[in-house]
Amino acid sequence: MAPIRWDSESAAPTTPEQVSDATALSAPSRAPSMLSIPNRPGKLNARIKYDDFLELAITMTREIIICSSAPASTQVILHNMRTLYEMWFEIARHDLDQLDLRVREMVLGIPDDHPSHVYHLSQLFSEKLCLVMSSGDFGQGIELFDRTNLNEGIDRRLEVVSAAGKTLDPQDTDLSVYITDLVHCLRKLYDLLPNDENFEELIHRLMRGLISCIDITSDERAVVKGRRYKTNQDIDHRMDCCDNLIEALCIRFEDAGGFPGRKGNVLSYLDDAISIGDAAIKNMPEHEQRLKSLPRALMLRYEKRGLRKDIDEAIRLERLQLELAESGERSYVHLEGDCLNELANFLALRFERESEFNDINEAVSFSERSVKLGASMRSGVLASWKCDLGKFYGLKYSRTTNLEDLEKGIDQLRDALDELDAANVDSKSPQRLQCQNNLAILLGWRYERSRQRDEGVGSAAQNGRPEVNKDLNEAIRLLWQVALEPNLHNFDTDYIRSLNNLGKFLTWKYKISGDDNDIYLAIVLGSKVKERTDEQSTERARYLSNLADMFRLRHIKKKNDTDGESAIKLLKEIVSLDSTPPTHRISAVLEAISWLEETKNWSDLRKITGAAVRLLPRASARSLRQTDQQDILRRYAGLTSLAAASVLKAGGTPLEAVTLLEEGRGITSISQFDTRTDLIELKAAGGAASKLAEEFELLRDQPEPDESFKSISTSKTSQIPSASRKLDEKMEEIRKLAGFKTFLKPPSENDLKAAAGPKGKIVIINISFRSDAFIIDKNGIELCELGNGSDLRPELDKKIKAFAPHAHGSSGSIFETLEWIWDVIANPILEHLKMNKACDDGNWPTICWVPTGLLCSLPLHAAGYHQDGSRRTVLDCVISSYSLSVKARLYTRQNMAKWGHQTTNRRAVLVSMPKTEEYEDLPGTEPEVTEVKRILRGSGFTCEDGSLDKDGIRAKLSDCDIFHFAGHGITDAVNPSQSGIILNDGSMSVQDLAGMKLHKRNPLLAYLSACSTGHNRDGALQDEGIHLMGACQLAGFRHVIGSMWVVSDERCPMVAQDVYETIVAENLSDESVAKGLHNAIINLRRKTGGSGYRRDRNGDVCYEGGEEEEDLETNGGDPRLWAPYIHVGIS
């Protein structure tokens, strides 16, 4: 986003007056014309000698000052002094000393007791700067500074402002005039010599002096004055004054940030600007929309520090300015098109950093409106807005991958270039080169998309189709024009960004052409980019990743070990760059994985994938919308499993592998567990611990930028202090507190053993390029290799297809899949545990399964040979439960220990939904709930029929021990967090249930007798456990019963009856829930049969088969009916 600049499309100033108007941030109103000397006495100069005319002017001015008591007299003096300078510039440009002498004489003629005496003496300094600027002779400007005591001039101005602010009555003195003049002076200083370090301290002192004089942040009197100004007719000047100072500070910050090695904290300019704006809004809130520059100051600080509150406030203020512009009151805001474009840029920036999809949609909408309004404006402005719109379409495409967005972006950028041609904008102008750079990026993306499509259909053309390569060739041509433009070499971040893109596209070309010159040039460019990129740059990881890819490609073709070593060295640097967004670093690792696997470099693969997994929680910060979190995590599906496999392949320990699996899975839900344990305890500790908890939450919820699209027009201030580094530092600070040594650390080995309990076994199954089971019990962790060390992923993918969400596959294919799971996964584990024999004594061992990745879609508890009567099945050997992770199970145990787990109230909320609008009737739900009510009342429960709307159920769940729902369930494949149970007023979603904080009560059971309540249809998010059962566990229920796919309305009452009879018979013990479901599944396996069709609780009609019931004891019945039921919780 382009920084605030003076309108480059306007005609350049040619007169002192125009220079003054163009550079003055806020000028007081002109004096009445009757008291003014003519502005342009050029014709008079030919008839009157210079000295005579100057003497006449001085005399006239003295008389005016002495005789006039009008309030406008001070303005006349200022106006006349400026006119005298203009006359001097036209008559006697060569005589600086003579000018000083004459004007000082004029000012000294002002009576000492005149209120403007000191002010006009100090005005000499600023007016001389104005004239030097207009002359264009910067050499003479330096001479002027040498002849003038700058410190004296600034000290005089500070003296004036201080006196005006602290001794004069604000109703009688226009303080804004003095402040504006000082800002005007500052601007002249910097515009004249922006790079001269000798002025750094001088300007900084002037800025600080001004803020000190007006005491806008601390002086109580400033607040009083602000309130008095509310009714003052000059309030516009005062708000303009603040706005102008904010703008000056923004410009100073932007320019100072562009020079490497600049000393001092340039962020202080933004802090001062925002402090001034905050104080002005506090005193005059009804005029906040007039602070036109404050949103930009907030945006700039957000770019630098990454504080979400800054960009949110910037967007809020810009929306107010847009409303004012749309209302037609345009005196104090940009034109409507400017506001629309500015707001679109702010929203796009927030999208890049926070990944909130709604932002980029809004940005495109506002930008489209600005372009429509700009159709009647000059071509340069319209071109700029079209260039921005093209960029926004590109950003949208980066998320949607919708070709229409990409095409629209390309069209807008081409139109922008046409507009620049129409405006005769120079071919080497930064504005044109910005458009070219953005267009090249989008063309490159279109090429990449087409290439991937060709690869997907098995294109035989080795060198690609010509129409595809055309985009790539044009992108390279455009970027060469940018790269070879010498005027851009000083724009470091912009220039190197273009070089990086050019190197990347040359790499793509090399993949087509095989021309060594292409990869050679790419590496040269990539190396130059690396050298010129600051180590703290947020884009360094992206640049290094591209360079590593270049070395990898050449290594693959040339077998040059040096290239391979260079690539690995770069990858190691990338993962350690804590100043770079996590998404950049993780993506770089993903690109290198297949290469490291092929070269069998297990040691380096272990290091970089482990580092990438530890970045996942930061890449998907809690402050993001859940859909945005999910979108980020989809990109990295399978990474955690691969990292764990890499640990073992490289000779690491099972504990290290399990730790990675715990860190990289269930991120969206496990973060909730963390919040309710460690963070709650930290807040409860009070004092310094409580403060650290608040600071930690602020950093944790701040996402790192995901800058997937960068153009040459982006602000130069890209070196953002790393939130990742600050978060690490804050965690270490917390861990130094007594009792918080393990704050938010992954479970230790002792924690893992505690999660298993005294009798249970936890089995984590990891499927990747090698497959393993990690068996955890009270004694430690054991490793069980699966599949003889082979990659089970291809075969697993095939087997999953037999368990489609609605289970329409034949029962034969399902049996085959259950047998495969037994042979390859379940039986080796049970053999290792010596549990692979059918249990006949009723002393059932228990296993908690923790599957990973796509294995989460398969029923491990149902694995085995159910048709041959051999009893080689998991059901016949052990009682099964499931858990998203060990940490989730540990959380439940810790919660039980802390808050207790006795079911004392014995209250049950029972909900039956036999009829639901737009869904099929479910006649089985009423008898199911009636039977559950009978059983529970017999054991002393108070049973309430739940309300059929969300609010009613929420209210009753806050004080219940059992929640039983019988009705329809839905799964949302696009947004799993919106899967839910259907009520009268809509869906009660995963997100709704997860937000209920019932952990202090530890209710016993949530029984969800509906379809697919334990299933996530999004294969890339299986490790997140985003389903209704997980939500109930997260809400605080100790046990949850649900289903992996559709369930039969006719069979559900049978299962519920068996479950609750076991629970009541065993006095509501925690062990009874899993045992009750286990008994129910075995009974249903035996009983299932009949003929015809069944109604499931997903609203579908399914065929049940035609076997007779007595035959099903040997053939295993229909697993589509008995296998979907699962238990999550403590067993």
UniProtKB/TrEMBL annotation:
Residues 817-1129 form the CHAT domain. Residues 1-32 are annotated as: Disordered. Residues 11-23 have a biased composition (Polar residues). InterPro entries: CHAT_dom (IPR024983), TPR-like_helical_dom_sf (IPR011990). It comes from the Eukaryota. It holds the Pfam family CHAT. This is CHAT domain-containing protein. It comes from Orbilia blumenaviensis.
